[in-house]
Amino acid sequence: MTETPGPTPAPIPSGCVPAGTPVWSSEEAARWSRVRAASWARPLWSVLALLITVVWAIAAAPEPPCTEVAPCGADWPGMVEMGLAVGLLYWLARLPELTLVAAPVLAAVVARLELPGAGPNPLAANLCVLGALGFGWAAARERIAARRRRRDLVEGSSGVRHPLPEPLARLRRGLIPIGAGLLLVAVAAFCVAQGLAGVRDDRRHADHAVPAVAKVVGRNDESVRVRTDDGRRLRLDSLYPEDHRVGGTVTVLEDGSWRRLVSEPYDAMGPQLGVLAAGLPGLSLLVTGLLARRRAAALRRGPVPVLRVLERMDEDGLVWIHAGDDTACRRPVLGAGFVAEAPGADEREPAHPAADDVDMEELISAAMLPREAVMFGSPYDGGELFLVTTFRDGQPAVLRTSGPVRLPRSVRRPVSAPETEAHAATDGVATAVPATLVTTGRPLSWGPGALARAGGAALALIMIAGVAFNTRALVTGGFGVKTVFFLLCLLSWLGTAAELLNWRVTADSSGLWLSGWWKVRHLPWDRLRSARYTREGSVKIRMPDGGDWRLPGLGMPKLERRFGLNPSYVSMTEEVTALRDHPELRPTEPVPPRGRGFPLGPGLLVLTLFVAGAWTLH
CA torsion, points 10, 14, 16, 19, in degrees to nearest 10? Predict the structure, then answer.
C-alpha cells in the first residue's frame, strides 16, 4: 500500500522548553526500547513454573484422615502458604517489588512445613516449588534491573535536569488504591479475628463438654448420623464425613445444645476464605498505591531529566510518546493515560470560552494530532512522567500520568496507527489505501471466514446441547443453583456464536450496513468516525456522538501477528478506513435489502429453545 505523510506536529512555545533540553532522537529511543529484561525473565515463565509445581505439590501431598488422636482444626500456617502461592501468581506478573519479599517468605514456609518427614514424591514436588520460587525471584529482580538500566539510559541521553513546571496540584496519585487496599485489609483482619474467636469458643465448649461414644449409622455429604449408647440418634455436621465408616464408633462432645465430633474441631474455613478473598487484592492494591505514590513524590522532590518528544493521543484517550524527530509519529515508544496537572483541571482538553460553539468531534480530532512536548522524568515500565505540551488553542499545558507507564507489547506496530497492537485510523490523518481494496462502484461486503464460521458452528452446537441438557435437568431434577448458573453461562455464548457465524459489514453509496448478532444498523458515511481492530481482538466502529458498534472478541492479535495472518475483520477495518478518507473510492450503487445482511441471534435463540423444549418434553 502507498504511504501518506502525516500532519506537521503542533509546535510548543519556546518559553515552555527549559534551557538546554535535547531532542530525544529516534536512535536513542530505539536504543531505550531495546533495553529489556532477558527473555527468561518474562512473567509468563515464572507464573507457569510456580503454577505447575504448586499443583503437583498439592496432588502429591497426602491427606491424613481426621482421627481422635490427630484431630483436624484451623490450619493458619496452611492458609498463609496457600495465600502466598495464589498471590504470587499475580505478583510475579504485575508487582515484581512485592515478589522480592513474598517469594522468600513462601520458600521459608514451604521448607518449614512441607519438607520435614515428606515422602519421595511430596519431597520432589516441594523442592521443585522452591526452585520455581527462586526462578521467579530472579526474574523479578531482572525486570527491576531492566527498569534501572532504562532510567540510566534516559539520564545519559538527556544530560540536563530541571525541576517540574509550576504550579503543581496536590499529590493525589495512589490515594484510591491505597484507600481500597486499606479497606480490604481491614476486612481481612476482621475475618482473622472472627476465625480466632471461633477457635476460642470451640475450645471453651470442649473444655466443659461431656464425651460420649456413639456408633455411625449413616452419612451424607455434609453430616454423619450416630446412635449413642443410651439410644439417642444425633445428626452431626462434618466437613469430612467420608473419614467415618458406617458401623464404626466415634466420640461426641456435648455441652448443652452444643455438640461436635472429637476428631473435627472448629477449623475456621469460612473466615480463612474471607481472609484470602479480601487480603490478597487488598495487599496488591495497597502496594500498588504506595509504589505509585512514592514514584510520583520522588518526581516532585528535585530536578529530573528532560527531553523534547512528540505526543499524540489515540481514540481511547491514551497518549503515546514518540521520539522528537519522528514527525510522522509512526513508532510509539511508550504510552500512558495523562490528565491536566493544573489545579482544578481534570480533562485532556480544557474548557474554552467558545466551547459551546465548537463541535466535540472537532475537539477530539484536534487532540489526536501530533504535538511537540517536553517530557520530565525517566520513563520505564510502571514509572511516572510529566509532559509540557499545548492545548488546542496553542496555550501551554502540563500533563501528568494518571496511570502507570506501559510499554508497547510488540515491536511490530501498524505504521499508520498511533497505538500499539491495533489497526486503527485517526481523524485528521490521511490513511493509506490497502492493495486489497478494489472498487468497481458496486457495493462491497465483508463477513466471517471459513475458520470463524467453523468456530461459531462448534460454539453454537456446544451451547445448544448444553442448554438442552441443563434445561432437562432443571425440569426433572428440580431447581438447582449450579444448574441455573451453567444455563445462564451457556446462553451468554449466543451472541458470540451468532457473530462468528454471520457478522457482516456492507458498504454502499449511502454508508455502512452493520449486521451484528441481534440487529442491522445503518451508518451514513458522514457519521463514520473510525473503524478499528483493537488490541483485545475486537472490531469497533465509532460515531461522532461517542457511540460505537462492536464485534467483541473476534480475533487474537498476538497469534495473527506471529503467523502473519490477515483475517477478514482486519481487512475490513483497513478498507473501511480507506473508504472513509477517500470518498472517490466509495461504491456508487445502493445495496438491495437482502444484501444488507441479517442478524442470526434471534434465529439461533429460537433454535436453542426449540431443541431444549423438544428434548425436555421427549
Answer: 130
* 3-state helix vs strand vs coil in the chain, percent to 5: 45, 15, 35
Cα distance between residue 555 and residue 576, in whole Å: 18
Contact 181, 282 (CB under 8 A): yes
Copy the grid coordinates of residue 64: 491424613
Distance between CA atoms of residues 596 and 508, nearest Å: 9
**pLDDT tens readout for residues 488-527:** 888 888 888 998 899 999 999 999 999 988 889 999 998 8
For residue 398, give the DSSP letter.
Answer: E
Highest mean pLDDT among 297-306, 420-429, 474-483: 297-306
Q: Is the entire prediction scored with pTM above 0.90?
A: no
- Sequence-separated (6 or more) residues with CB below 8 Å from residue 249: 213, 214, 215, 216
Q: Which range is least confidently modeled, 69-78, 150-159, 204-213, 333-342?
A: 333-342
DSSP 252-274: EEEETTEEEETT-----HHHHHH
Q: DSSP for 117-150?
A: T--HHHHHHHHHHHHHHHHHHHHHHHHHHHHHHH
Class of residue 50 by CB neighbours under 10 A (exposed 0-12, middle 13-18, buried 19+): buried
* 146-187 residue pLDDT tens: 999 988 888 888 788 888 887 777 777 788 999 999 999 999
For CA atoms 335, 336, 340, 346, the dihedral sign is positive
Cis geometry, peptide bond prior to residue 552 (ω within 30 degrees of 0): no
Beta-ladder partners of 254: 210, 259
- The one-character DSSP state at 212 is E
Cα-flanking dihedrals φ and ψ of residue 614, to 5°? -65, -40
CB of 469 closer than 8 Å to CB of 414: no
Measured CA to CA, the distance from residue 532 to residue 543 in angstroms comes to: 12
Grid cell 468531534 — which residue? 361
SS3 letters across 161-195:
EECCCCCCCCCCCCHHHHHHHHHHHHHHHHHHHHH
Ramachandran class of 325: left when φ > 0, alpha when ψ lies in -120 to 50, beta otherwise: alpha
